[in-house]
Design a protein that fits this description.
- The chain is mostly helical.
- It is built from 22 helices and no strands.
- The termini are far apart.
C-alpha cells in the first residue's frame, strides 16, 4: 500500500521551507569563503584606511559562520511555543519571514558595503532553521499514518541532505560561487521560502493538533480525508481519538515540566543523549578532515569542491535508502547499526591517519573511511534521531520535547565547532578515539534501553517504553519512594 498523494505533497511542502533550509544554509556559506573575506578586508580598508588584521578577519568570518547556530538556538526555544499557539502549519508559514529577512540582509551587504548585514542575515537564517528543525518533524510525525510514520519522518533527514547537496552544487564557481555572484548566492535562501508560501497553504493543519489541542472536530475530519483519503480515515481517526481520551484533562507541557515528570524520564534521557550524540559523534569532524584527505590523496585543490559534492551525494543516497528501509527494518536496527558502523570507521580512520605516509594507498583508504562514515551516519543517526523524538512522546509533551532536544542539539553544534580545532591540535590523528567512545556508547545504550517503535501508536510507545533495565530502575525508584515515605 502506498501513501496518499496529498500526504506526500504536504510533506514535501513542509520540508522545502523547513529542514531543506537548514542543510542549504550550512553548506552554501562554504563556497564564497574567500570572496566574503576579501569583501570584509576591502570594506575595512575603505572605512579605516588600513587592512584588517589576520586575527580580526578570522574573528569576523567565524562570527558570520557560527552566528547561524545562535540563531538556531533562539529559533528552537520559541518553535515549540509557536507550534502550540499558531499550529504546526501556521508556524512553518510564519517562519518564512525570518528566511526572507535573512536573504534580504545578506543580499544588501555588498551593495551597501556593510559586512555587519551578513552577520545579521545569518542570525535570521539560523532562527528560520531552528524553528524549521523543531516544527517540521512535529508536523510530519502528526500527519503520517502509523504504517508510514518512519518513512515520512525520514523526510527530515532526506531534505537536510538534499539542502546540503544543493548548497554545494550552487556554490560551485560554474554557477554562483564567484566573486561577482556571491551576494546572490547567499540570498537564494529566499527561494525555498517563497516555494513553501505558495504550496503549503493548499494543505491542511495537523489533524492531531486540530482535534487534541483545538477541539476542532470538523477541521480534523476534513484534514484526515484530504491527507489519507476515505479508506484511511477511520483508522487514523480512531488512533487520534484514543490519544485524545488518554490525554483528557492534560494541557501542553512546558519544557521544564518534562524534567520533573517521572513518567517520561527515560524518554527524555533518551532524546537528550540521541540529540547530543548527533552533533558529537564525529560527523562534523569528518567534514573538517575531508578536504585535507582529498588533498593528501593527490586530488588537485581546484577539483576538491567537486569531490566534496560527492560526499553530499553519498549522504543524500543513504538518507533515501534509509527512508525506504526504516518501516521494514525498524528504527532500532538502523540507528544501532549506524552507530556500530561509525565506531568501526573511527578505528579505521585513526589507523589510516596514523600511517598516512606508509604507503601511497593509505590516503585512498582514508578517503574510503570518509565516505563509509558519512554513509553510516545517513543510514541511522542522521534520520532516525528526529523520528524517535516524535515517537517517544504524546501530543501534550511533544512540542516541549522538541524544544529541549533542539536546544541541546544546537548547543552541541556550537560547542563542537568551538572546541573541535583544539581537540585536533591536542590529539591530532587520535581525535577520532573521542568519537569512538561516543558512537560505541550510543550503540550500547540504544541496544539495551530503547524499544522498537515501528508500527506502534504514540500511546502504545508511551506505555511500552520499558526495557528490562528500565523496569529495574523503575522498581528501584518505587522502592526508594516507599522507603522515603516510611521514614517520614
Amino acid at each position: 500500500m502506498l501513501p496518499n498523494k496529498s500526504l506526500v505533497l504536504a510533506a514535501c511542502a513542509a520540508c522545502i521551507g523547513g529542514t531543506f533550509q537548514y542543510g542549504y544554509n550550512v553548506s552554501v556559506i562554504n563556497g564564497p569563503t574567500m570572496y566574503v573575506q576579501d569583501f570584509i578586508n576591502q570594506t575595512w580598508r575603505e572605512r579605516y584606511q588600513t587592512d584588517i588584521s589576520a586575527e580580526g578577519l578570522t574573528l569576523l568570518w567565524s562570527t558570520i559562520v557560527s552566528i547561524f547556530t545562535i540563531g538556531g538556538l533562539i529559533g528552537v526555544t520559541v518553535g515549540g511555543t509557536l507550534s502550540v499557539k499558531l499550529g504546526r502549519k501556521g508556524t512553518l508559514l510564519a517562519n518564512n519571514i525570518f528566511a526572507l529577512i535573512g536573504a534580504l540582509l545578506m543580499g544588501l551587504s555588498y551593495p551597501t558595503g556593510c559586512f555587519e548585514l551578513l552577520i545579521a542575515g545569518r542570525l535570521f537564517t539560523g532562527m528560520n532553521a531552528g524553528i524549521g528543525l523543531c516544527v517540521q518533524p512535529l508536523y510530519l510525525g502528526e500527519i503520517a499514518p502509523t504504517a508510514f510514520r518512519g518513512a515520512m519522518g525520514m523526510g527530515t533527514s532526506i531534505f537536510i541532505t538534499v539542502g546540503i547537496l544543493t548548497g554545494q552544487v550552487v556554490g560551485l564557481r560554474e554557477l554562483l560561487g564567484t566573486e561577482e555572484y556571491w551576494p546572490f548566492l547567499l540570498s537564494t535562501t529566499c527561494i525555498p521560502a517563497f516555494l513553501q508560501l505558495l504550496i503549503l497553504p493548499w494543505f491542511p493543519e495537523s489533524p492531531r493538533y486540530l482535534l487534541i489541542d483545538k477541539g476542532d472536530n470538523e477541521g480534523c475530519k476534513k484534514a484526515l480525508k484530504q491527507l489519507h483519503g476515505i479508506a484511511g480515515y477511520n483508522t487514523e481517526r480512531e488512533d487520534i481519538e484514543k490519544e485524545k481520551s488518554n490525554l483528557a484533562g492534560f494541557k501542553p507541557k512546558k519544557p521544564w515540566e518534562l524534567f520533573t515528570d517521572r513518567s517520561v524520564r527515560w524518554q527524555l534521557l533518551t532524546i537528550l543523549l540521541l540529540n547530543a550524540a548527533q552533533q558529537l559523534n564525529g560527523i562534523n569532524a569528518i567534514y573538517f578532515y575531508a578536504a585535507y584527505l582529498f588533498k593528501q590523496s593527490g586530488i588537485p585543490v581546484d577539483k576538491i569542491p567537486y569531490v566534496t559534492v560527492g560526499t553530499g551525494v553519498c549522504e543524500c543516497i543513504t538518507a533515501l535508502t534509509a527512508g525506504m528501509l526504516i518501516d521494514c527494518l525498524g528504527r532500532k536496527v538502523l540507528i544501532t547499526g549506524g552507530y556500530m558502523l561509525m565506531s568501526i570507521c573511527c578505528i579505521l580512520f585513526t589507523v589510516t591517519l596514523s600511517y598516512q605516509d606508509a604507503s601511497p594507498i593509505i590516503p585512498y583508504l582514508s578517503m574510503a573511511c570518509v565516505f563509509a562514515f558519512i554513509l553510516s551516519f545517513g543510514l541511522g543517526p542522521g534520520g532516525v534521531t528526529n523520528i524517535l523524538t516524535t515517537e517517544l512522546f504524546t501530543q501534550t509533551a511533544r512540542p516541549a520535547a522538541y524544544m529541549i532536544a533542539g536546544s541541546l542539539n544546537w548547543l552541541c553544534f556550537f560547542f563542537i565547532g568551538l572546541v573541535f580545532p583544539f581537540i585536533v591540535i591536542g590529539l591530532q590523528q587520535y581525535c577520532f578515539l573521542v568519537f569512538l567512545v561516543v558512537c560505541s556508547s550510543m550503540a550500547l545504550y540504544i541496544f539495551f534501553i530503547v524499544p522498537e517503535t515501528k508500527n506502534k501508536t504514540f500511546v502504545q510507545i508511551q506505555n511500552d517504553f520499558q526495557s528490562p533495565i528500565n523496569k529495574k530502575a523503575r522498581r528501584a525508584d518505587g522502592a526508594g519512594m516507599t522507603l522515603l515515605a516510611t521514614s517520614t
